[in-house]
């Protein structure tokens, strides 16, 4: 059975799924273009015209190629730091013992925020996550320790005898599996995290449904965190919110790039465009003209690792090298 995609598409918001290949979870990128004859923005590609020639099509083409905005670079302004931003968006806390799934909190996509007070051994110790779905970013007393995807451990080193610490974990859903034996997999902290040989217990879990963030939430994200001051250039280092406010005299399609940013989510005006990640292959997110308006627009970025100092509007997409895509059943 052979399927051929004629027209590309976009997984806006948190709709991008995932596949498994040899057991490894591979997240689907936001642009579902797949080198189709008609690109996600409606562009008729060279492949489209080659197919017309091969099929002997002679009827006139009535559709028009899409217009795009002129390329430009937009400096960003810092908003809230990551802790403050996630606290603002998260729901009420629920006490759990050692594990918790998204489904336990009626959460389909987005993130879980977990924190627990832990007793730290005096010798070198590691924090292990035998089963986390899908990615855990770990901090101890506000300092980032690292990240684990699906399973792994983080070396904490010596931490003093009998000391305590506040452990924070952000668990992200990187996409529901589209088909195959992994359909219906649960998301979250699915096995106890182990501090040395002891299970971390008494977590406080908060659901974070990013798709529910409304205009008032986004406005508050762009505010400065209480007590913060200083040079915006310095404060852009690290995780948190950054935003840009392009003023447009006309509207047309564009492609958003985030050079210098690492991974997170982005809204255009009040619309959740989707996830981005510097690992690629996708470098730009498609922004259709109806998401924009004449006058001032707002691009809001929630960066989980490292904020950049500018975003770019590009006339053409950058989706990585062309690949042959074969669906097997």
From TrEMBL:
Keywords associated with the record: Glycosidase, Hydrolase
Residues annotated as domain Beta-galactosidase galactose-binding: 244-297
Sequence ranges assigned to domain Glycoside hydrolase 35 catalytic in this UniProt record: 2-55
Superkingdom of the organism of origin: Bacteria
GO BP of this protein: carbohydrate metabolic process
GO molecular function: hydrolase activity, hydrolyzing O-glycosyl compounds
Gene3D superfamilies with a match to the protein in the record: Galactose-binding domain-like
Domain Beta-galactosidase 1-like first all-beta: 101-209
Annotated stretches, region: Disordered: 214-235
Pfam families noted in UniProt: BetaGal_ABD_1, BetaGal_gal-bd, Glyco_hydro_35
Biased composition (Basic and acidic residues): 217-226
Family: Belongs to the glycosyl hydrolase 35 family.
Designated name of the protein: Beta-galactosidase
Organism name: Litorihabitans aurantiacus
Lineage of producing organism: Bacteria, Bacillati, Actinomycetota, Actinomycetes, Micrococcales
